[in-house]
Specification:
The complex is a heterodimer. Chain A is of the alpha/beta class. Helix content of chain A is about 25%, strand content about 30%. Chain A is built from eight helices and 16 strands. Chain A is globular. By secondary structure, chain B is α/β, with parallel strands linked by helices. Helices cover about 30% and strands about 30% of the residues of chain B. Chain B contains seven helices and 13 strands. In chain B, strands 9-8-7-10-6-1-4-5-11 form a nine-stranded mixed β-sheet, with helices on both faces. In chain B, strands 2-3 form a two-stranded antiparallel ribbon. In chain B, strand 8 and strand 9 form a beta hairpin. Chain B is globular, with a radius of gyration of 21 Å. Chain B starts with a strand and ends in a 5-residue tail after the last helix. The relative contact order of chain B is 0.18. The chains are: A alpha/beta, B alpha/beta. At the A-B interface, helix 3, helix 4, strand 5, strand 7 and strand 8 of A face helix 3, helix 4, strand 7, strand 8 and strand 9 of B.
Chain lengths: ~300, ~250
């Protein structure tokens, strides 16, 4: 078996999600090649070559791939993927955008969000917002799957010495153009990579009150997240949303503040090692998954927590 | 400009689905079915484009057993002009749905196809991207803003780090995220009117599409349950437990 893993990166650095995806590839077994698609992404390829267990790094470095538009990268992944038994990418917004496009070009039914490898053609994945886990077997010649990164412990970023090979296929569909982006600027760690996450829900009342959480986060070196209710209410931007349709996180410590615990939110954080819930409603469903529950008014408890840390 | 919208019949989002006792499938006998929430947002966006004078006709498509006509009627009541049902009782996987949609796109030649980014049953998040691949169109996935500008469409997308805007040549595929709009409620007169709007029925066979499933569900099971822990009395006890018991701070 031979597995092609699509690297998650921003042309400057290899993202940790790639290491979790390679871990899923290792669980399948076989040679693992990593494809870096981007522009000016040489440093990413070098980092990928050092990752434990990687046989070969393919680099497609071209201006057409600068913003990793799915129309272009999907075609390239299909062109290269036909030589492999498996094609894997992290279930990030980049992976989710590109991978089904590549799969359709390969005439393959992809498998989204795998959380366990049961065999080379059999995987577990959540459906119905995580209320049900399905075991799915693929009969396609090539298995195309996106990987829920929190379900696989990352492989070591160092220890490998894979060869780097340039790919000169340039796929430019000429149907899409990058216009711009607004990326959240923050000195705090990335939500999906942080070891501590503190999230606020509708109970926060407004966006300004999130300042209370930022203060605690800065003491703990934590990332700050939010429930869908808080994002929909306009308190904070969408990239902070933790949940089935937002980000899936599994930190060592997750602190849920003013979050009732809708199933949609639980699906995004219930694999956290330790969960703390602070909510004034003692009937809130969040308490049924929390290791430590504190029934209190968050506007008293959170400032007190900050001073006691 | 003609807009095509795909809608899916799914278990209502308020229903908590459980696996059958034998683990063969989920138990959805006698549960409430609705239009997939992301698809409802897709219908709303198309209706808004029509109200702005950008869209001239909205065609809504759904696939599945006869009952999915209910969801087509819902979309017609919200403002779509006519419906197409691709009737089959067989299991439809996203690749098969994308192929059926491609056959309809070839016939209808819409300038814009709007779909939900994922359905809340299968949670696959694939069909729009696959339809775009099969038709060679650009794809504006996870859209939070859609603006038609002449021969192209600007789509703002919700991505992991924030927002990204892309410009796609028309015809193009857009998939909706939650914050694109807030769907309206259908008024009673519009529900009555929807009953008289045209609804054509076709089949995968007539469209020339092989819908044979490519994956098989071997088993479904509930997720590992997390045990509830303890309630702490105050912040001091919480900090103490996190330090000495959980050892996470």
């Amino acid at each position: 078996m031979s597995i092609l893993v699509i690297a998650e990166h921003d042309n400057a650095e290899l993202k940790g999600a790639t290491l979790n995806t390679i871990a899923a590839a290792k669980a399948i077994g076989g040679d693992i090649d990593v494809l870096v698609v981007g522009s000016g992404c040489g440093a990413v390829a070098e980092a990928a070559a050092k990752v434990e267990g990687v046989s070969k790094v393919l680099v497609a470095d071209n201006a057409a791939y600068e913003h990793q538009l799915g129309e272009n990268t999907g075609k390239l992944v299909a062109d290269l993927g036909k030589n492999y038994s498996h094609v894997l990418a992290a279930a990030t917004t980049t992976g989710k955008n590109m991978l089904p496009r590549a799969a359709a070009l390969l005439d393959v039914q992809p498998i989204s969000d795998i959380i366990a490898v049961e065999g080379p053609d059999t995987f577990k994945r959540p459906v119905y917002a995580g209320n049900v886990i399905a075991t799915v077997q693929s009969s396609d010649a090539i298995k195309v799957a996106s990987v829920r990164t929190t379900a696989f412990d990352p492989v070591a970023a160092e220890g490998g010495s894979a060869a780097i090979e340039a790919v000169d296929i340039v796929d430019d569909a000429h149907v899409s153009k990058f216009v711009g982006e607004e990326l959240a600027e923050s000195d705090r760690p990335e939500l999906t990579a942080a070891s501590v996450v503190i999230s606020g829900g509708r109970g926060m009342g407004n966006g300004e009150n999130f300042e209370l959480l930022y203060k605690v986060a800065d003491k703990l070196g934590a990332a700050v997240g939010a429930s869908r209710a808080a994002v929909d209410a306009g308190f904070v931007p969408n990239d902070m949303q933790v949940g089935q349709t937002g980000k899936i996180v599994a930190p060592d410590l997750y602190i849920a503040v003013g979050i009732s615990g809708a199933i949609q939110h639980l699906a995004g954080m219930k694999d956290s090692k330790v969960i703390v819930a602070i909510n004034k409603d003692e009937e809130a469903p969040i308490f049924s998954v929390a290791d430590y529950g504190l029934v209190a008014d968050l506007f008293d408890a959170v400032p007190e927590l900050e001073t006691k840390l | 400009m003609k807009v095509l919208v795909a809608v899916k019949r799914v278990v209502d989002y308020n229903v908590k689905v459980r696996p059958k006792a034998d683990g063969s499938d989920v138990d959805i006998a006698n549960v409430k079915m609705s239009i997939n929430p992301f698809c409802e947002i897709a219908v709303e966006e198309a209706v808004r484009l029509k109200e702005k004078g950008v869209a001239s006709e909205i065609v809504v498509v759904s696939m599945g057993p006869k009952q999915c006509q209910e969801q087509i009627r819902t979309a017609l009541a919200l403002g779509a002009d006519r419906g197409i049902q691709v009737e089959t009782d067989a299991e439809l996987q996203p690749l098969a749905v994308a192929k059926c949609l491609k056959a309809i796109v070839d016939k209808e030649e819409p300038q814009l196809v709007i779909l939900g980014k994922q359905s809340i049953d299968g949670d696959n998040n694939q069909t729009g991207q696959m339809l775009a691949a099969l038709t060679g169109m650009g794809q504006g996935t996870f859209a939070s803003e859609v603006n038609i500008e002449g021969e192209s469409v600007k789509v703002t997308r919700e991505i992991d780090g924030g927002l990204q805007t892309v410009e796609l040549t028309l015809p193009a595929v857009v998939t909706t995220d939650l914050r694109l709009n807030e769907p309206r409620y259908a008024s009673l007169p519009n529900i009555m009117k929807a009953k008289r709007k045209p609804l054509d029925v076709t089949t995968p066979d007539e469209l020339g599409v092989d819908i044979a499933p490519r994956t098989k569900t071997l088993k479904v099971e509930p997720p590992a349950e997390r045990q509830a822990g303890i309630k702490v009395a105050d912040v001091a006890e919480l900090v103490e437990k996190l330090k000495s018991e959980a050892k996470v701070i």
